[in-house]
Specification:
By secondary structure, this protein is of the alpha/beta class. The chain has one domain. It is built from nine helices and seven strands. The longest helix has 16 residues, at 188-203. It binds adenosine-5'-triphosphate (ATP) and 2-amino-6-hydroxymethyl-7,8-dihydro-3H-pteridin-4-one (PH2). Adenosine-5'-triphosphate (ATP) is lined by residues 56-58, 77-80, 97, 99-100, 157-160, 179-181, 183, 186, 193-194, 197.
Length: 208
């Protein structure tokens, strides 16, 4: 997605959540200073022309995975990765702002799972802890203006960001599992994030 097309949505999101774009920019610089990795061409090779399943972490994920034959390239949004592992499915890509993963992600990354790590104003300490641990394929993302090896595919929360990324990388079809944007069992902030997930996904033709 062109940053110019994303920018108005980004400013609306910052206003809605009272985020300071300067903090996001600071986080992006912290990430870039820690790693020069960029596995974007590996990601494009994996996804371009292929079907993808993006797994969000709604409570329905487990039963949907058990009921569904997961097709194509499996992308986990953050903590959805551990649900997939418990169902015997290894995510090929994990999109994360680092608040839902655990040590298992390092092992998966060493075995080839592409980590797509999002830097934002509220996760700088987690960037400093986790980024140096990923010695396998790694892509950095920002929600602000991209530069050097940090990308902006569009999207805000891990799930919708994963869908925007798959679309940008040329997926032939994108199937969603584990998305429930009406989930009432979440915190008020998370409810706001799910309202945005619904809006951003609807902008590109997906319902959740
Ligand atoms: N009902 C739901 N509850 C949680 N996540 C959901 C739900 N429906 C869709 N998702 C998507 O699954 C993603 C991963 O969920 P997780 O529980 O790991 O959230 P999170 O780490 O709090 O996400 P984020 O930090 O992006 O808000 C979310 O970013 C969201 O896009
Ligand atoms: N500044 C900031 N940016 C974000 C945040 C957040 O909590 N703070 N959470 C996100 C997805 O959960 C994505 N982006």
């Amino acid at each position: 997605m062109r940053y110019e097309d994303w920018e108005p949505l980004y400013h609306e999101i910052c206003e809605y959540f009272s985020f300071d774009p300067d903090d996001d920019e600071r986080a992006a610089h912290v990430a870039v200073d820690l790693s020069s990795s960029d596995a974007t061409s590996d990601l494009v090779n994996l996804i371009s022309g292929h079907p993808v399943t993006v797994c969000g972490n709604a409570p329905c994920l487990k039963s949907q995975v058990q009921a569904d034959n997961i097709t194509g390239v499996v992308i986990a949004a953050d903590a959805a990765a551990s649900v997939l592992l418990s169902c015997g499915v290894r995510p090929v890509v994990i999109v994360t702002d680092l608040d839902g993963i655990d040590e298992y992600a390092i092992d998966l990354n060493n075995k080839g799972t592409i980590m797509v790590v999002h830097a934002h104003g509220d996760n700088i300490p987690r960037i400093k802890t986790w980024v140096p641990k990923f010695t396998g394929p790694l892509i950095l993302t920002t929600q602000g203006r991209p530069f050097k090896n940090i990308h902006n595919f569009g999207g805000f929360s891990d799930g919708d960001r994963a869908v925007y990324m798959a679309r940008d990388c040329g997926a032939s079809a994108i199937h969603l599992l584990g998305f429930d944007c009406d989930d009432q069992s979440v915190t008020p902030v998370k409810k706001g994030k799910l309202i945005w997930a619904r809006r951003l996904l609807s902008e590109i033709g997906y319902d959740c």
